[in-house]
Amino acid sequence: MIQGTIIRLVPAAMDDRQTVYEWCFQSETTPSHSGPPDYPDVLIPTFEEFCSDDYYADYFFTGSAPGDGRGFMIVYGEEPVGFISYSSFHVKAHKSEFDLWMGREAHCGKGFGTDALIALAAYLGKTMGIREVIIRPSLKNARAIRSYQKAGFEASDASPNDYLLEEYVSLYGDGDYGAGKTALLIKRVEIH
Fold it and tell me: Which sequence spans correspond to the domains of the chain?
């Protein structure tokens, strides 16, 4: 468990996978990042596609490959309110990429996501030597970008070559939303 200021991060388990999928792709928060009408080019995967190595492989829910990535349930009090993950398999040394979403609109705007980002970055800095974290939302997702900025992320004009391993540039370089539509925000992780 990772303790934040107002939330805690609990390692996600295989039993959480269906819930995490529904929060991302079948909930009232989905239109803010995926699918029509605002994101017609960002297809909503099936649950089976979500569980594949192309999306969220088993290790995000088992902890079997912490060097590649891991997922965590964001818990406020006793209630799971969202999900955050880090991926490092595709980025250069001492870097990681985050992804985050909340389970319901009622959980947005409360600081849960911001606190989760800060807590996970600090944890990865201390335990894995991560020095820089990236997150890549849609440029249209102003609410997410504001939350990330509150957590210390700053907009960057960096090239994908600056953070991705060469073999992943063609696959992930344009981000989920495509070139010119994906924001790149970077947080430098301070080691204490």
Answer: 2-188
Question: From residue 98, how far is each of 40, 78, 106, 113, 137 by CA, in Å?
Answer: 23, 24, 22, 11, 10
Is the bond preceding 37 in cis, omega lying within 30 degrees of 0?
yes
| Topology, domain 2-188 | Aminopeptidase (3.40.630)
What's the pLDDT tens digit per position in 165-188?
A: 999 999 899 988 988 899 999 999
Whether residue 25 has pLDDT greater than 80:
yes
Token readout for 162 is 């600056």
Q: How far apart are CA 190 and CA 124, in angstroms?
A: 10
**Residue 83, Cβ density class (10 Å: 0-12 exposed, 13-18 middle, ≥19 buried):** buried
140 phi and psi angles, rounded to 5 deg? -75, -15
Q: Which residues contact 135 (CB under 8 A, 6 or more apart)?
A: 97, 98, 99, 100, 117, 148, 153, 185, 187
Residue 153, token pair as written in the block: 């992320």
Name the helix (H) or strand (E) containing 154: strand 154-155
What letter represents residue 78's amino acid? E
Q: Determine the Cα angle at 138 with ends 181 and 81, to 5°.
A: 170
pLDDT of residue 159: 86
